[in-house]
Amino acid sequence: MNSINLLPWREARRRERRRQFHALLLLAASAGLALVLLGGALQAHWLAVQDSRNQWLRSENQRLGSQLDEIRQLDEALALLEARRTAIEGLQRSRGQAVQLLDALARRVPAGIALRSVRQADRVTLIGWAQSNARVSGLLRELDRMPGMTGTPELIEIKAATLGQGRDARRLFEFTLTLQPAASMANPLSEAKADRHAGQHRNAGEVAR
User: Would you say residue 174 lies in a domain?
Assistant: First the structure.
């Protein structure tokens, strides 16, 4: 005999399917929320790691920057020391050359000539007094043979001058001439006085006598 199920099985199966669907939906939502939370945690971890790396890079850049500043300061200090050393060596060399130049001039200046000043830029300029034009010519010949000079001495100016007053007045010749030093004696001095101001007049008086 056939049995007939009169119970509401369709409604029960529908309720079971709905329950399973809700369970699956809840499981999917839970899995999605877990994935979101996991992704957020991983992203926060990566951001923290990247921030720590950035902080390390900033600190290293600051340290390197301070070291570069120290190196730059040391380079500047070394450059200043090198410039001072070069200047001192040049000064010491110039002093020796100036002594050589003045010593050579002292040996070459003939009697009847008094140098008032010796200056040097590119050329050596001599200013002084002479008893006569012949004395100046003799000085030019002596300077032409002086070692450490190149070219011929050039007489720039010579003019009559009166030294003293009244009975003590003396007629002299004031001259200006230039010399071209050799490279080894280039620029030994910027300006060297052959005598002090009082000594200049004394020498000029001796020349006049």
Answer: yes
- Global pTM value: 0.45
Dig out the tokens for 70 from the structure: 């120290």
Q: What range does the domain containing 200 cover?
A: 94-208
Assign 182 to helix, strand or coil.
Answer: coil
CA distance 75 to 54: 31
Please tell me the total count of domains within the chain: 1
Can you tell me the distance from the alpha carbon of 77 to that of 75, in angstroms, rounded to the nearest whole number?
A: 5
**CATH, residue 193:** 3.30.1360.100
The b/e string for 161-174 (b: 16+ C-beta within 10 A; e otherwise) is eebeeeeeeeebbb
Spell out the per-residue pLDDT of the chain, length 209, in tens: 556 655 676 787 888 888 889 899 999 999 999 999 999 999 999 999 999 999 999 999 999 999 999 999 999 999 999 999 888 887 776 666 677 777 878 888 888 888 888 887 778 889 998 988 888 888 888 888 887 676 788 888 888 888 777 777 788 889 999 888 765 555 444 444 444 444 444 455 555 55
In a domain, 22, yes or no: no
* DSSP 8-state code for residue 8: -
